[in-house]
Amino acid sequence: MSHIHLPDGIMPFAWWASAYIGCIAVLCIMLRLINKEEVRRKIPFTGVMAALMLISMSVPLGFIPVHMSLSVLNGILAGPALGFIAVFVVNIMLSLMGHGGISVAGLNTLLMGSEALIGYYVFTVLKRHMKPSLAAGISALAALVVSVALMLGVLAATIGVEEALPGHEQGEKGGGSNTVSFLSLSGWSAAAVILILGMLTEALVTGMIVSFFSRVRPDLIDAPAVFNNNRMG
Amino acid sequence: MHLAAVDYMAVNGKSFLHKAGPHSKILMTLILIAGVLVADSLAKLGLIFLFAAVLILMSGADLKEIFHLVVYPAFFSMVFALISMQQSVITGAKVMLRAIDAAMAVILLITTTSYVDIFAVLSLFLPGVIVDIFIFTYRSLFILLEKLENLLKSIRLRGGYHPLRLAFNFKNTAGMIGVLIIHSFDMSDRLYRIYTLRGYSGRIPLTRKFKTGACDIVLVVMSVLLLTGVIIKWNI
Q1: Residues B183-228: pLDDT tens digits?
Q2: CATH assignment of A13-170+183-226, among 3.40.50.2300, 3.30.470.10, 1.10.1760.20, 1.10.238.10
Q3: What does the pLDDT read at residue B221?
Q4: How many angstroms away from the CA of B169 is the closest CA of chain A?
Q5: pLDDT higher than 80, residue B132
Q6: Residues whose CB falls within 8 Å of the CB of residue A231, separated by 6 or more in sequence, listed in order
Q7: Does position B163 have pLDDT exceeding 90, yes or no?
Q8: Chain B CB contacts of A160 below 8 Å
Q9: Does the beta-carbon distance from A103 to B33 stay under 8 Å?
Q10: Cβ–Cβ contact A217 with B under 8 A
Q11: How many other C-beta atoms are found inside a 10 Å radius of the C-beta of residue A103?
């Protein structure tokens, strides 16, 4: 959901280079934390989850101009370490297909990786107290709120997105509440509605998928040790 | 997603670019992207575009597919180009051309080099776990795309999709992804067993010896010359 489709040459060098350094640092930490022997069995599944993420990211959500990423579900099923690595793989492959530049792949990994990490930990806590489907939905929403806030923060800090949105000049001219209608869906309000709809959709679908697992293959959800048998899980 | 078409062009192409080693093509792509990032004028960006376009033409790639692949980053850069056009039209054009140039450099690479060869070069720098995940992702992608297509067909045939019933569609989509994940889990288990039988011990062997021929030298020298020309401040 929080995948930035910025082509190369738009984001300032300092930002994307620092994001790459951050991404490599997190990858190194994750690779140190996993137990290589135990994780070997999970590598094919992580590859398959990454492929599913790639597919879901190429499917538009009808009238909502965003796409799902399933990174929270990936975090829940593959675990935080392999989940983060899968996100890195997905972003490099997407950039090789022209979906976002190679220079922003590091930043995209950090943003989407935060969804996998937050989603996994919130789900682990919540599923002890409520139905897995509800826990998955809430954890997906929480992770998406954080990652989307981070994405907007990065965009506003680097390229000044507010300049692009209609309605910006109205606010600047001092019209205030007299000129800007509460009901007019333009500028940030339109972006906010789209993002909220996108987040709710992804949270809903994540919850529904987990609900489907609870009915058909509860072992995937009820016995997470099978999937998260690394040191972090 | 144009993955199948890109893969077909990369594997079945016969041009000198297809014969060049993946290491030199990746190096050339990185040099071109560096050129895109440092280019400060429309003329320099135009030169990089021309260079990439000529090489794409020489590679014999399917131009219709290339056009589709270029349109995507061009569309996304348009928003930022419009922001920059508030300063000047040239700045806006530069933003757009930067995005197109970088995309063309990457497209040139992926339409002339198979993904497995790219992963082989990446395996020189990346840990085995990550490279293996790359390979499994690539392998699974085509299988899952086919499964997804079949699932979508059967959902439609059984009346599981209605344009106006959003909740109904969401429920069925979630079920479809759920089925796909369960299939994927079984598939990954099977893959693991097959690979273990073939001696998989945590690192898929890849050919890491890359021959450097005349094509490779020409490509790298040409791109270095282009980068030099882009960096130099011309007083014309």
Answers
A1: 888 888 888 888 888 887 777 777 777 888 888 999 999 999 999 9
A2: 1.10.1760.20
A3: 95
A4: 10
A5: yes
A6: A33, A34, A35
A7: no
A8: 83
A9: yes
A10: yes
A11: 24
Whether A231 has a pLDDT exceeding 80, the answer reads: no
In angstroms, the Cα distances linking B186 to A121, A181, A191, B1, B179 are: 25, 54, 40, 25, 11
Contact A70 B177 (CB under 8 A): yes
Query: In degrees, to the nearest 5, what angle opens at C-alpha B48 toward C-alphas B47 and B50?
Result: 65
pLDDT digits (tens, 9 = 90+) for A132-149: 899 999 999 999 999 988
- In sequence order, the β-bridge partners of residue A64 are A61
What pLDDT is attached to residue A126?
A: 92
Select the residue of A48, A86, A209 nearest B178 (Cβ to Cβ).
A209
Which tokens is B13 given? 């192409």
What pLDDT score was predicted for residue A160? Answer: 64
A26 touches chain B (CB under 8 A): no
A98 alpha carbon, distance to own chain's centre: 19
Residue B202 is nearest to which of A40, A47, A201, comparing CB atoms?
A: A40
Residue A129, classed as helix, strand or coil, is: coil
Torsion-angle region of residue A146: left (phi > 0), alpha (psi -120 to 50) or beta? Answer: alpha
Residue with tokens 């000044």: A160
Give the C-alpha separation, A134 to A154, whole Å: 30
Which among B3, B83, B170 has the least Cβ separation from residue A208? B170
The confidence score (pLDDT) of residue B25 equals 94
According to DSSP H, which parts of A5-104 are helical? 13-33, 36-39, 43-57, 71-78, 80-96
Q: Judged by CB atoms within 8 Å, which residues 68-127 of A form the interface with B?
A: 70, 73, 77, 82, 85-86, 88-90, 92-93, 95-103
A101 near B102, Cβ under 8 Å?
yes
| DSSP annotation of B41 | S
Q: Which residues of chain B are within 8 Å of residue A50 when distances are taken between CB atoms?
A: 133, 136-137, 140
Determine contact: B92 vs chain A, CB below 8 A.
Answer: no
pLDDT of residue B153: 87
Q: What is the 3-state secondary structure (H, E, C) of A43-59?
A: HHHHHHHHHHHHHHHCC
B179 Cβ neighbours under 8 A, 6+ residues apart = A212, B151
